[in-house]
Inverse folding.
């Protein structure tokens, strides 16, 4: 989306909202002024929202953001302003915000862990990506991309595995599986090159070893 827009020459920043504590995520997004907390850099630090001025910020796992941070994000989206931690000064910024989550935000609203007003602010344009098990035609392209530019031969049982396994972890799980197989110094990949849990799954499905 960013690369195809008129913002493509401007900054793009991505942050995983589930990878930081509440206070650290707030300082990462909004920045802070000198002395605002123990360990703060002298002179303060710009937040990612300010650094992305004119460009795009991608908030991955937005459903993991705390209620306190959701309030601050809502104010930013409504006013187009950021207020660094420890400062009384607000700064105008122009940023496109893209959010992603694997949680059901409507259920999260009902349970009180996601603000209704923020949900309606970020959801006017929504793209739903089906799980990998519902778009099996994507498995082979993702797999071959993960295996790299070298030519690999996959045995027929291995091909069958990739087509039939449910991939609950979606593309990330598939790529992780491919990365494991790359650790073997061979261009011919067999079932025996899969991580143990996948070999066990195949045996559980058929009651026989596919090696």
């Amino acid at each position: 989306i960013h690369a195809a827009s008129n913002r493509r020459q401007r900054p793009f920043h991505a942050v995983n909202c589930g990878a930081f504590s509440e206070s650290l995520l707030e300082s990462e997004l909004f920045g802070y002024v000198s002395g605002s907390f123990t360990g703060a850099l002298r002179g303060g630090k710009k937040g990612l929202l300010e650094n992305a001025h004119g460009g795009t910020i991608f908030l991955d796992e937005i459903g993991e953001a705390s209620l306190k941070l959701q309030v601050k994000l809502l104010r930013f989206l409504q006013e187009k302003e950021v207020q660094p931690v420890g400062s009384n000064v607000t700064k105008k910024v122009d940023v496109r915000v893209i959010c992603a989550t694997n949680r059901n935000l409507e259920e999260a609203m009902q349970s009180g862990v996601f603000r209704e007003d923020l949900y309606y602010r970020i959801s006017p344009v929504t793209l739903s990506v089906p799980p990998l098990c519902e778009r099996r035609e994507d498995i082979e392209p993702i797999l071959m991309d993960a295996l790299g530019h070298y030519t690999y031969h996959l045995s027929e049982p291995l091909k069958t595995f990739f087509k039939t396994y449910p991939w609950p972890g979606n593309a990330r799980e598939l790529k992780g599986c491919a990365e494991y197989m790359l650790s073997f110094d061979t261009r011919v990949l067999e079932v025996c090159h899969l991580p143990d849990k996948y070999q066990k799954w195949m045996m559980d499905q058929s009651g026989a070893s596919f090696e």
Remarks:
- Residues 11 and 55 are 5 Å apart (CA to CA).
- The beta strands are 12-16, 31-32, 45-46, 56-60, 81-82, 91-92, 96-99, 153-154, 188-189.
